[in-house]
Amino acid sequence: MGFRDDLRHRAAALGGRVVLAEGWDERVAEAARAIEGAGLASVEVLEPGALPRVEEIAALARERRPDRFADDAAARAYVANPVVHAVGLVALGAADVAVAGATCPTADVTRAALWLLGPAAGVKTISSAFYMFPPDAPDARSVLTFTDAGIVPDPDARQLAEIAWAAAVDRRRIVGDEPVVAFLSYSTKGSAAGPRVDKVREACSRFRALAPEVTCDGELQVDAALVPEIAGRKVPESPVAGRANVLVFPDLDSGNIAYKLVQRLAGAAAVGPIIQGLARPVADLSRGASVDDIVDAAAVGVLQADGTSTTQQEGAWRSL
Q1: Which domains, ranges and CATH numbers included, belong to the chain?
Q2: Residue 44 confidence (pLDDT)
Q3: pTM for the model
């Protein structure tokens, strides 16, 4: 069983509830049929003008963001957007995961998630990850987590550490193996110097304090993070030593460019962007998403939802 099949199989075993926000889009409608046909989850599909719980979600929006909604009418108008409504259903507990973004920018999905759900307890930084793997990946050893590649433009050291922690927590749920975290740089253990190297080094130090049980190292160049032979020459003492599976990029430029290069030049498949650090899961779609991408996003969200209570507990006592 390949990684994608394994992802869907494990999600199906959980019996989750998925709400798809953009039912007028044929890709979304087809994905709903595929999800139900595979027994992956129970599915609710939203259409404009047929939204089930406007009043309740509007009341929630006013409660959470009174600065944004002057009256009930303003709140009702906001949650009449199916993307917002889908997130609201998750906030009410009527669904386990919302899937949205096939017809709108990431910013719209993220804003709704922040306003109606907010971050998990103890989490300050909402971020994202892509799970990259060869199309015929036989198992989890072929899967790499790229983070952050979609949300935080220029994270500081504290944010990088928290991004790495969120990626490590999610990797256990989504891939099912133990995270091995590499903080990436143009420098390997002092081979270069400068403020950007210092930031990555500090982030790794903060991460060790935050998650001492997770294997990590940094700063590392990507070849030292991924290739054991090169790691043996450059950093033979490294606990990562060429076997990283979570790659933490120093900024959004490098993360986003890297995942697209690997996807386009190496033919790797990409599952994501996966939003990390929310109180409950919302799956963001690229506007170029295929039916398979939408099904994968739903499966990932179901797996994230299964661990949401654990994330909140960990976040409550582990804070930067």
Answers
A1: 1-123+278-313 (3.40.50.10950), 124-276 (3.40.50.10750)
A2: 92
A3: 0.86
